[in-house]
Here is the input.
Amino acid sequence: MTNTKENVTKAKLIELIESKRTGDTESSKEILELVLGTIKEAILNGQKVSLAGLGVFTHVNKKERIIVTPKSEKAVTVKAHVTPRFKLSKKLQNEYLRVQS
Here is the structure.
């Protein structure tokens, strides 16, 4: 993978997988779809997904709270809800920080 600021889309991931293995684009697409679908399903079921060297997908329970909207300055109650969270692995975070400096 090149060190550009280009966004990596699902189509780009399929191309990258294809370039690193033998086979056709359809099989690379199928592999990526299976992996992403399995991760998505686990997240939607409230499961923690750990990918060694990449990071962890979890969910966080947020309590009900009152916020003030900046434009109208009115107080609004935000209901309690669950929100997804992704945390980079320490190894990847250290590599990222090294590349960015």
The chain has two domains: 1-47, 58-101. The beta strands are 49-51, 55-62, 65-68, 75-78, 81-88. The chain is about 40% helix and 25% strand.
